[in-house]
User: Fold these one by one.
Assistant:
Number 1:
Amino acid sequence: MNPRRQSRLIVVIAVGSLIAGAIGLMLYALTDSIDLFYTPSEVIEGKAGQHPQVGQRLRIGGLVVPGTVVRDATSLAVSFDLVDTGPKVTVVYDGILPDLFREGQGIVATGVLVDKTTINAEEVLAKHDEEYMPPELAEKMKGIKHVKPEQGATSL
Amino acid sequence: MWKWLHPYAKTESAYQLCSSLKPWLWGGALLSLAVGTVWGLAFAPADYQQGDSFRIIYIHVPSAILSMGTYVAMAVAALVGIVWQWRTAFMSMIAMAPVGALMTFIALFTGAAWGKPMWGAWWVWDARLTSELILLFLYFGVMALYVAFDDKQQAGKAAGVMALVGVVNVPIIHYSVEWWNTLHQGATISKFDTPSIAPEMLWPLLINLLGFALFIAAVTVVRLQNEILRREIHRPWVQQLAASRLEQKKVEPRHAV
């Protein structure tokens, strides 16, 4: 390689790795703010030494605990518990749930922390995992019955 | 080792290479897109959780993967252009940019259309969605910088630097779902592990991925030829080419309607 090309290549590589390093450090410093949500144990036990305050707006993401979904008979009000690996947090919500909402499903809810373990949510989003399989296979492998999303259940 | 590549630094041989590749790329793209799309949309089984809605994966995933792939290819072209000062490298870089931007847009758009029924939201500012949006802006930046200069060699250098700097965003997009909590799911196929998708759903996805790649290559090749002709319009070989095309048109007998 001739010396001019070589020096250009070195400059490009040096500048490139400097920029990559700078952006890497920046993202590392911002890790906590880039996370979309708190997990239930972070809400209760705190995250990086900081506890969310009662009255704070936050997002929480966790799995819906089977058997804790309580629906109001006359309105859209619903409450359920979320869990990750530790303690549970109760979510209270009044609105239409996404199609994928079901017991055991990952959920991300935005709302206000009304007391240490309860969140009054104004938005509930469903998170799904990366697994795709036909219903027969899911039944065989996981014992999950295919639940067809109810038609017309979404809001517009 | 790279001796076979050197002739294509010359615009004329690059143009001829494009001409001979073009029919294969278009043919392969149309064939695999037709097979993959029909198989995926009509014959692959429905998903156990998402039902038929999951089928948008056959457009969303190939366009998203290739929005990043095209960016990397563009950055490699920029590197070759800057270090080895090949004019054809900058020309291929700028030929790829709008195609990559289109792929990014398709990925964002199909993602929103998929997110609304499944998640319950068109858009969430999570790490994956935000970094993919930044990728779209990077493409726009490269294109805008190239247009901003009248001297196209200078323009290629400026846009090339932008393309090279932006390449740090590609690993960020890919690992965003692992590094941070996101609403977006983790990787289904682009990981060093068995894909988390049943084989009868995976095959049409892979075929469509190939189809999208060939389509991008085909459009890039056409755009590269145009760019070469535009930049080399005063060269004898371009004028000869134009003259011979004109000649062909005159000789062909026209049937009266």
Number 2:
Amino acid sequence: MTRKNRRLLVLLICGIGLGSAAALTLSAFSDNLVFFVSPSDLAKSGPSGRQVRLGGLVEQGTVEKSSGGQAGARFKVTDGNASVPVVYKGILPDLFREGQGVVVLGVVQPDGVFRASEVLAKHDENYMPKEVAEALKKSGRWNPASGSPPPASTWNEPAKPEADRPRG
Amino acid sequence: MTHLPYIVAAYVIAVGLPVIFAAEAFFRVRSARLRLEAIDMRRDRGRS
Amino acid sequence: MLHRFANPGQFLRLSGKVLPWLFWTGGLLTAVGVAWGLFFAPDDWQQGDTVRIMYVHVPFAWLASAGYFSLAVCSVLSLVWRHPLADLAAAEIAPVGAGFTAVCLATGSLWGKPTWGAWWVWDARLTSVFVLFLLYLGHIALVRAFDDPTRGYRAGAILALVGVINLPIIKFSVDWWNTLHQPASIGLTGAPSIASSMLWPLLFSAIGFSLLFAAITIARTRAAVMERRIRSLLMAKASSAGEQEALS
């Protein structure tokens, strides 16, 4: 390889790298800046026929796992103000449960049902050992279905034992 | 539910890369030092 | 002060003393953190044992950004003060930073598949870290693209400084926009939202990998200084031999 060719190749690699960096930044940060829309946003815009990502919490008591051979589920995604019914055929992620944050990719049908082709579970910033979660739930300080847990600084306090409480 | 293959793969990558980098750096430093000493020795011999 | 450290001879002496300590403490802390995270840290109530990937993912994510910051500092030293040592250091930091960023992306992907249900998504956090990886690659290629090394160093320094804009984007992407990636669990302000039994092994592996990163880049810079000295000695010898031939 001559020196000129090598320079050409290196410059080409540079150009491709920088060009794709710029392109990715632009495409990701202009119209895809927001990875998902909320159920309230979706209710405002109505069915558009376009593929969108919908993010929110799986509403309590709305999950119906489909019976029969095919994996899938019907559930509602809510942000507290609006909720959108979703149907999905496919394998759900391990973290999927009621009260869990999810991002679903799909299209709003004319009847208002969101037909999802992909369901992703969103993890929150809380990292909590199983034992702590059990203790918090047992002591009634936290219900996973109702929202995020109390601050981590309080987790290590022993679950208020019965003896500490005023008797009578 | 365990995801052991994912965990093992992540740890192998994460520990392997610094080990490779460290070994490469070690050998680079050693070979440079040896070559430098060889040049200095030849120069000293030339002077005497 | 700065000039003393920028003196290559002084750097060789100092780094020779510091390096063994950096390597051994870094290796020891990393071993403790990795063993703790892999065998003794508790399972997460939601993620189960997949949470263990965090102990290797988070340090590499932090070092991907911190490494780029050190690259930018070297670039300023090179552009403004013309320290020859800063040029050599920058050229040696970039490949290590690229490797650590690649590990950050790979371990994150290995965590994302079981947790989210996807290897990769183009959300703002993942995309901006991928751009950081491309910036490292661009720097590696640019520094080596010129016959005159000084021009390569100069171009690389300019690229590194242009790319600094990406660092705050990475940091705040999870707060500014809806992303699939979760926001930070540990911040300078506010209590961490992570159990202390999980925070301790993370601290060990983060400090351990950071010391290893520092040790690797210093060792590489040390080698680069010696290699440059070899080149100039050989060149001086060749030219003096040439003179002698011309005289005789």
